[in-house]
Amino acid sequence: xxxxxxxxxxxxVQDEARRFEVDGVAMAVVLDSNGExxxxxxxxxxxxxSLSEGFVDGDTVECWAHGxxxxxxxxxxxxxxxxxxxxxxxxxxxxxxxxxxxxxxLALN
Length: 109
Ligand code: FES
Prior knowledge:
CATH superfamily: Rieske [2Fe-2S] iron-sulphur domain
InterPro entries: Rieske_2Fe-2S (IPR017941), Rieske_2Fe-2S_sf (IPR036922)
Distance between the termini: 24 Å
GO molecular function, one term: metal ion binding
Strand content: 35-45%
Protein name: 3-phenylpropionate/trans-cinnamate dioxygenase ferredoxin subunit
Keywords: 2Fe-2S, Dioxygenase, Iron, Iron-sulfur, Metal-binding, Oxidoreductase
Bound molecules: FE2/S2 (inorganic) cluster
Largest sheet: 6 strands, antiparallel
CATH class: Mainly Beta
Pfam families: Rieske
């Protein structure tokens, strides 16, 4: 599987998460305040809640339901009640295009 274009950089709003589905994989994509783009699994590991409906703060997104914040870099929850990480996907910027490969999950550490 190869990386697929999901949108242009200009379509992302800084510090807001947006939901995309690529090959059936739902992901929350965030342009952070440093201009970096992140893609993590969209479903909170505590419940069936879309993280793209959550609140972006720095390099984290907080689930609106019970407040677990997930690192956009590692996918790890930084506070309870969630304790399982979400996947983190490889993002490639090609000119103005944002590409994500849903098959490439970055190592969690
Ligand atoms: S559903 Fe996300 S923290 Fe509970």
